[in-house]
Write a structure and sequence with these properties.
The chain has 379 residues and is of the alpha/beta class. The chain contains twelve helices and 14 strands. Helix 3 crosses helix 9 and helix 6 packs across helix 8. The structure holds adenosine-5'-triphosphate and Myo inositol 3,4,5,6 tetrakisphosphate (4MY).
Length: 379
Amino acid sequence: MHKPRQQHEQHRLVGQVAAWCLPGLIMAPEPQSSSPRPCHSYYTVGYALLPSKVSSVVQPSLVALAAEREVRLVAVDVTRPLAEQGPFDLLVHKMYGRAWRAQLEEFSAVHPSVPVVDAPAAIDRLLDRATMLNAVSGLSASVGVGVPRQVVVNGADPNDLPVLGALRFPLIAKPLAVDGSAESHEMRLVYRRDGLRGLRGLRAPLVLQEFVNHGGVLYKIYVLGDRATCVSRGSLPDVPQNRLLDVDTEPSVPFANISNQPLPDAANGADMPPAGFVDEVARGLRRALGLHLFNFDMIRESEEHGCGRYFIIDINYFPGYAKMPGYESALTDFFLEMLPATPVHAQLGPGSGLDIEARKLDPGPGIGLRKVESDRAQA
Ligand SMILES: Nc1ncnc2c1ncn2[C@@H]1O[C@H](COP(=O)(O)OP(=O)(O)OP(=O)(O)O)[C@@H](O)[C@H]1O
Ligand SMILES: O=P(O)(O)O[C@H]1[C@H](OP(=O)(O)O)[C@@H](OP(=O)(O)O)[C@@H](O)[C@@H](O)[C@@H]1OP(=O)(O)O
């Protein structure tokens, strides 16, 4: 129902951004630079994002800062063939579905020198809660971080009980698939076995994951290439042992989208994880996943219930970077690091910036999707 309006808004944004470089058109939003640079020195970063992500991340402050540093951000029109748009010096994306993947493959075949961040196959691993945490297992021995025990179940009824194996209550039931839908964030905290009956309302298949008491504090680490920024957030409170035995209380309770809660007052003095540790985990995950743009949620087991181990419970592709302090300069730095030495249109000579046909002749070195995939394989 809302789609036509959203598409209209997206097209309007394309128009606004592109307008900066066209003489005689109103320039909006106004870049903050005191010395406007000539149009030909701009790099173009194409972004393919859902409208909600565009409005949260592609804010005027980001657009203006990037423009000051000669990077213009242009929305990809996903309803039109990608190969007919541009020219782009770099593409970033968070879109779901096969049609989009096919578009990217076709684009990279024609423009192998344009980096695409990130490779779809690498992103796919984060769209399944069973595979998303596999990368952590490779880290745990050296870095000292683990994942809670979990199993995948196809339905949630008492017949599934054998698959629970050695899992200990409380458990969190999470939909296996992460596809950007509201349902993929609907969860249930299950205190005891009879609570499993209440899971039929969730979208199967599910992951049943051990709940780890962690003092109600969650660390969200935003990764942008080689940079990692850790922030703390409120989380689910600890579950006391007597709650698990109290048959007069609900056997399970639903919750959703709680990872953006402010920190509870009691947790305000909570220690942040050491910066060196955060960097090491982020670097290890970035290599293991072959991704540049993601965040991960980490908790620290409460000492009264365990021995203070760190656990990673969730990894998200292209998160809401605007919630990270200083995201505008971090994102712009990242774009500049990923961009090739010369803008594509400058490689083709003056006046060729909008000439799509000419650009198809661009013989640049192969660092598109294949480069990102091969970085991943080497990592
Ligand atoms: N194993 C766990 N132990 C303790 N708390 C957990 C565990 N798993 C999840 N939580 C709590 O539930 C919240 C939501 O879980 P999770 O991050 O897996 O869901 P999500 O919908 O993918 O979140 P996001 O909105 O960050 O994408 C977490 O932020 C945390 O507060
Ligand atoms: O909504 P925001 O922009 O804040 O970003 C959230 C993002 O939503 P969107 O990509 O659909 O917009 C979520 O993605 P899906 O799992 O639903 O695909 C997931 O990555 C959250 O962890 C992000 O919140 P953050 O972790 O940064 O707090």
